[in-house]
């Protein structure tokens, strides 16, 4: 997974105040739009949880409004920061980091968290339905399916989920293993 911050945007909040938003792309596609203060909050959480010696350098706060050159410099520094966090085996796979990205994506895309019913097709031709939240991760879906099937915990590791898309001709295609 490659992180980049190729651009910034000047946006307005609810109060009409302007701020710089950093557009975080994952593998070349816009994933989320965040403020410096949100990334600073993530950085502080990571420092608190993992300690100063593990956390990569973070661009410092500035008291005065940034010039366009300073905004671009901060953008580059934030991009390097996000790449460093993602590349660290502990930080990049942490629930804290992934939860931050998920929440930021939901806010950016304005995706409401709601309960939905998901149809799971089993290899024996049967189908079960599980209730999940639109914000659930793959592990949450797998846990819900395992629970529905009364699958013992020690067997869950042998179970896989595949994203299947129905075609117009009544058939379906398997997109990928999740």
From TrEMBL:
Stretches assigned to the Ras-associating domain: 114-178
All residue ranges annotated as the FERM domain in the record: 116-178
Record key words, sorted: Endosome, Lipid-binding, Membrane
Domain of life: Eukaryota
Domain (PX) ranges: 1-108
InterPro entries, alphabetized: FERM_domain, PX_dom, PX_dom_sf, RA_dom, SNX17-31_FERM_F1
GO biological process, one term: intracellular protein transport
Signal peptide stretch: none
SUPFAM superfamilies recorded: PX domain
Main location: other
PROSITE patterns: FERM_3 (PS50057), PX (PS50195), RA (PS50200)
GO cellular-component term (any): early endosome
Pfam families, sorted: PX, SNX17-27-31_F1_FERM
GO-annotated molecular function: phosphatidylinositol binding
UniProt protein name: Sorting nexin-17 isoform X2
Lineage: Eukaryota, Metazoa, Chordata, Craniata, Vertebrata
């Amino acid at each position: 997974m490659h992180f980049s911050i190729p651009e910034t945007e000047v946006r307005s909040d609810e109060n009409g105040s302007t701020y710089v938003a950093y557009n975080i792309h994952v593998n070349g596609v816009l994933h989320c739009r965040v403020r410096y203060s949100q990334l600073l909050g993530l950085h502080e959480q990571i420092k608190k949880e993992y300690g100063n010696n593990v956390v990569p350098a973070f661009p410092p706060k500035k008291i005065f409004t940034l010039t366009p050159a300073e905004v671009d410099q901060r953008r580059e520094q934030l991009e390097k920061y996000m790449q460093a966090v993602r590349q660290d085996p502990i930080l990049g796979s942490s629930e804290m980091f992934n939860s931050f990205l998920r929440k930021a994506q939901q806010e950016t895309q304005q995706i409401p968290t709601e309960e939905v019913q998901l149809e799971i097709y089993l290899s024996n031709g049967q189908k079960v339905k599980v209730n999940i939240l639109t914000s659930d991760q793959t592990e949450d879906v797998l846990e819900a399916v395992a629970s529905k099937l009364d699958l013992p915990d020690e067997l869950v590791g042998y179970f896989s989920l595949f994203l299947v898309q129905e075609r117009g001709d009544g058939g379906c295609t398997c997109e990928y293993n999740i």
